[in-house]
Amino acid sequence: MNSVPRKTLVILAAGLGWNLIEKHRPAMRIAFRPVAPGPLSLTCPAQATLRTGLPPSRHGIVASGWFHRDLARPWFWEQSAALVRGRRIWDDARAAGQTVGMAFFQQSLGESVDLVISPKPIHRHHGGILMDCYTRPEPLYAELCASLGRRFDLFHYWGPLARASVGRWIAEAVQLLLSRPDAPDHLFVYLPSLDYDQQRFGPDSPQTARALAETLAQIDPLVAAAERQDRDWLLTGDYAIEAVTAPDGAVFPNRVLRQAGLFHTRETARMLYPDFFTSRAFAIVDHQIAHVHVPDPADLPRVRDLLAAEPGVDQILDRPAQIERDLHNPDRAGDLLLTAAPGRWFAYPWWTDPRQAPDYAAHMDIHNKPGFDPCELFFGFPPPHTSRKTEKIRGTHGRSGPGHDVAAAGLFPEARSFAELASALHRRLTP
Prior knowledge:
Layout: E1 8-13, H1 18-24, E2 33-35, H2 43-52, H3 56-59, E3 65-68, E4 73-76, H4 91-95, E5 100-103, E6 115-119, E7 122-123, E8 129-130, E9 133-136, H5 140-148, H6 166-179, E10 186-191, H7 195-201, H8 206-228, E11 232-237, E12 242-243, E13 250-251, H9 253-259, E14 265-268, E15 271-274, E16 282-286, E17 289-293, H10 300-308, E18 313-317, H11 319-324, E19 336-340, E20 345-346, E21 395-396, E22 406-410, H12 418-429
Parallel strand pairs: 1-10, 1-11, 5-6, 5-10, 13-20
Antiparallel strand pairs: 2-22, 3-4, 6-9, 7-8, 11-22, 12-21, 14-15, 16-17, 17-19, 18-19
Helix pairs in contact: 2-12, 5-6, 6-8, 7-8
């Protein structure tokens, strides 16, 4: 414990895997080291573990979205901090009078911190989006935009136009925050964009090499600013992206369940929408992880056998196996948890005839789809539709274990896992 914790800067970089450092060997003055990821190598579970030091079974973030049983609908990319359960690693520091800030973390709205910056677009009734950001204190976003001479561009944050340069606005904004006299004592920053080209082209591609160089160019001045202010700093990835090795690496558990008569749909304007109220089994997917819900336990053996026979499914964990691995949350986890085979990933579609695809399939709709859809990173035809061609995806993540280490630098060189980083950070922040 510390009498007065030193000020800190924590940088979490999406998709900063040890495989990238080994492959591209960037010339930087900081020394990277491998760190084992959390049991779910996904955005929101990793962020929740870093904030709480807890496993998914306790903080409740079992993927970047899950099935809300009471509402019978999927919830993806929701922003409320109340979704993350458990004490925060900074609670004792704040109780002792220190301040904490969060920039661009998911599920940060309403968080127990002193400063928040997060994308918060406003969808207009007649179409279009207002590219807004939520900040606390409220005037902060306008102040940052005025100082930087431009607004945050949400269109480059996600979707077909997403690019690594979107992190430049975040990095420059954080430098401004660090220079202010009221800068938080402890600032957590998320740089989101390194994984875009890894998903599009694969982690070994020239495009990824350029994205890595761009991201590291954003990180370097942040580290330099921290050192000038005598701040401790920690840089870590949240997951490593592996190459999709099959010509089409997608696995479609909902198609398997629908063909078996377990996943039910309803037809509207010749489009097939899921009927979660009557379905006997369905999958909520997130990259290489799928939560399969089976309301009637009597159906479990059949569902398990069907999915076990599907090529591309690696592991199937029932509730006892999930509990053993600290993955099961009774409110949110599926009755079965699937892990994709190496080089494969789970796609949410249940239809086979493209004419039966629901309206949201060809649009950026991160909230209604029952799973993460990386096809949104590509344009379809005609624009502004997004692609539905799963064969375009060349990188994925979610699996843990050997070969999936993230890259870390700065504080806690002794830590060998993501959970150890979170625990060490907790100790460092605790007076």
